[in-house]
Each structure stands twice: as C-alpha cells, then as structure tokens.
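During the no-cost extension, the postdoctoral fellow (Dr. R.K.) reprocessed legacy sequence entries with the updated structure-token encoder. One reprocessed record is reproduced below for audit purposes.
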Amino acid sequence: MRSYSAMPGETARGNEGDRSPLEKFLALFADVKRGEAITALLMFLNIFLILTAYYILKPVREALTIGGVRLWNIEGDEAKTYLSVLMAVLLIGIVPLYGYLGQRMKRLKLLWITTIFTVSSLVAFFLWGSATGVNTGIGVSFFVWLGIVNYFLVAQFWSYANDIYTEQQGKRLFALVAIGQSLGGLLGTFITDIGSQYIFWLMGLAAAILMVCITLYTIINRREDRASDAAKRAAAEKPLDKEGGFQLVFKTKYLFLIAMTVLITNVVNTTGEYLLSNAAKNRSREQVPASLVVSGSAASDASAAAPGRSTSAAIDEKTLTAEQQQELRNLRGANIGKFYGRFYFIVNLVGLIIQMFLVSRIIKYMGVRVALFVMPLVALGGYAAIGVLGGLMVIRVVKTAENAIDYSLQNTIKQALFLPLSREAKYKAKAATDVFFVRIGDALSAGVIALGLHVFGFGVGQLAYVNVVMCALWIAICVGIAREHRRLAHEADAPAGAQAAPTA
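Re-encoded structure tokens follow.
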C-alpha cells in the first residue's frame, strides 16, 4: 500500500488530527497512519478467513490421520511424521512449478489459480470421505495434500503483503494484519470443536470460505491499482524474473539462513507434535463405548467403567466385526478431532492476546533482530521441562506456549525479514522457504523420531532432549540472521552513491 504521503507541514509520522476514528482505533494495535486503514482491514480480513479455513481443516486432518491411518503396522501418530518425507519429495517439483507460473502470470491471476485448485480439491475430498468414512486412504491423502497446500496459501498471502507494502509500512502494519491470522485460528478451532462429528462437511465449509478470500484479493488489488501511478502498476503486475526460488535461497546468505531457521523450527515443532499426538492417541483409547466390548472378560471390565465408556484394556479389536472396527475408527477420529480442536482453540487464544497487545510493541521497542530470539529461548526451556517432568499436561502446556508464539510473534518477524528484498525473493524464495524447507524440517524430524523409537529406544524424555539440542542450534542461526539483517539495514540507510543493498 502506497496511498499515504506526508502533506506539507506534517511530520514524518503524519498529522494525528487528520486521522479518522477508525485509524485512531487501529492505532491501539499498530502505528496506522492516515489513508492506511481500509487496505489494512481488508488484508486483516483476508488472512483471518484463510486461517479460519485452515484451522477448520487442521483438526480434521488429525482426526483422519491419528484416528484412521495404519501403514505397515505403524499407527497414525507415528506415520504422519514419516509422510513429511513424501511431502518434501513432492515439493521438489511443486516449488519450481509455482515459480514457473509466477513468471508467466500477473499476481492476481496466480492467486486465483492456486485458490480455485484448493477449493476443487476440498470438494473432491468431501465426496470421497462422505462415501467411505475414515480410512487409511483418505487419511494419508488429505494429510499430504493439506500439508502442502496450507503453507502455500499462507506464504502466498504474505508474499502479496510484502509486495503491496513498503518496508516501513510492513514493519508498522504487519502486526495489525497478523491479528487477523490469530483470530482466524481461534474461530476455526471453535467451529471444529462444535462440529467435530461432521468432519467431512467441515471441508465444504472451508472451501466456501476460501472463495470469499479470492474475492477479497480482487478488491485489494483494484484498490492498489487506483492508488498507484502507471509506472507502479506496471511494476507490480510484471511477471517475475526466471531465476528460481531455490537458486535465490542458495546463493544469498541472508535467505539461506532464514531457510535454515525455518527448517530447524520445524524439526523442533514436528518432534513436539509427535509427543503431543502420541499422548492424544493414548487418551483417545480411553474413550471407547462399552457397547463395542465383545469378550467375556472385557465385558466385566466394562461393567465397572463409566456408563457408556470402557478403557482400552477392555476391548480386543480383533474380535470386532468390520462394521464395529469402522465405528471405532470413526469414534476415535471424532475424539481426537475434539481434543485438537480444544487444544488449537487455547493456542490461538493465547496467540491472539500476544499478537494484539505485545507484538507491535516488541518490534517497536526491541526491534526485529532481538525479537528473533524469543521463540527459540521459550522452546529451549519448554523441552527441557518435558525431558525432566514428562506427562500429558506438561507437553500440552509447552506446545501451547510454543505454538502461540510461533503463530503470533515469530510469524510476524518471519514476514518482516523479507521486506527489504526483491519481488522475486518475496514470491519465489519465500515459497521455497515457507513450504519446501518447512517440509524438509518435518522430514528430518521424521528421521529423528524413527531412529529414536526404533533404533535407540527413546522415550518422551529422550526425544525432548533432542529438541533441546536443536534449539541451541536454532539460536546460533538466529545470531547469523541478526548480523545479516543489520548489514542490509546499514546498506539501505547508506548515503547516495554508497553500495546498494542486495535484492536477492
């Protein structure tokens, strides 16, 4: 957005008295200047809806995977970590394809194509799931599909935000726009919690929400066109250069360090997700209807259980009919979906509070470079606590804190790191970083979990200590990013004639 320019007699900050009541209200959450409110609110609403759709689908994904997947005698909580390897392999081809499309299309057309593909896929999954119910086939397919698509949708939004905002605007306004991301996560998990019995219908709801998002992109794009002169409009709509996202990442130290941070973050996060999903699976096995208990000894156990419920020890799944086994998978899927719906609701509520009242102030007073270290330090302490104490409650508290900071402060900082860079870096390198390197991190986590469980016999405590080591490496990489960011800032502020900041 470039509609604001200082009027004669105004300070660099703008004339406070000329701001509308809406702009003054939004200034409670970010430094909004005159003329910036409407586009900022439209961007806020767009990411709000994207994250609402994603957090409707995220617990559905867990329900289908943990509740219904069994691959080569590996259950869903463990199998989903290994599926990240498949996603990483697929992305080797998908990321260059996205870059190819970006070279040949205007940005709005690119947004339309990716969103329509996502909506069409959701309709296909809805029809498949409605016909077959929870099973390994749809569980694996949906997990892989959502794991790729969701990062593209979010990365694409922030690439667009980096494109329409200047660096100074982004530093001020990203904190406000990202409140929509936190609110969307909160609403999405609330919807899934109350509709957890209708997991396939939730896919249709998410598809409808995404159609609204593409309408908002169109409105924002038209506003930007009207607010820009012909030269700026031509530059904004010009297709990207041919240089690929992977090339940009590997030839530029700053981008490479960002990619490594994303990778390490996801090694830590995915390993932590396994610890949580394993606990959630064990919990779901304590929520089996007594009506499915069929063995004589089990029936006596069931009689002592709470009405309508039995423990996992009270049921021999091999003695169930095919229909009963499907009923059991559906019920466990619903239980896990409800658990994750509530978990993500708390995560997003905490993240929303951080985003609304802390993020803009942390960035303003501490700066991007210092704020980089908040999340890895929190994760370091959290996984050390899991290693020492263990237990579902500790894991849930640590993951709540880690994810809440990730979705608020860490996310805003990550987007701000791309502000000084070229359009090619903002679209292509960002897509490679936010999608491919995320999945490489997940794949490395899968290797850590496989070795830990099946070679070294690690339990929860040992896997948590692996994350402690990874957090230390994460902090070291953040030191390198801070140094490169400082260098870019100094070069950008250099007098005319001095060396310009690199754009790749």
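The longest strand covers residues 70-71. The radius of gyration is 24 Å. The remaining legacy entries will be reprocessed before the final report is submitted.
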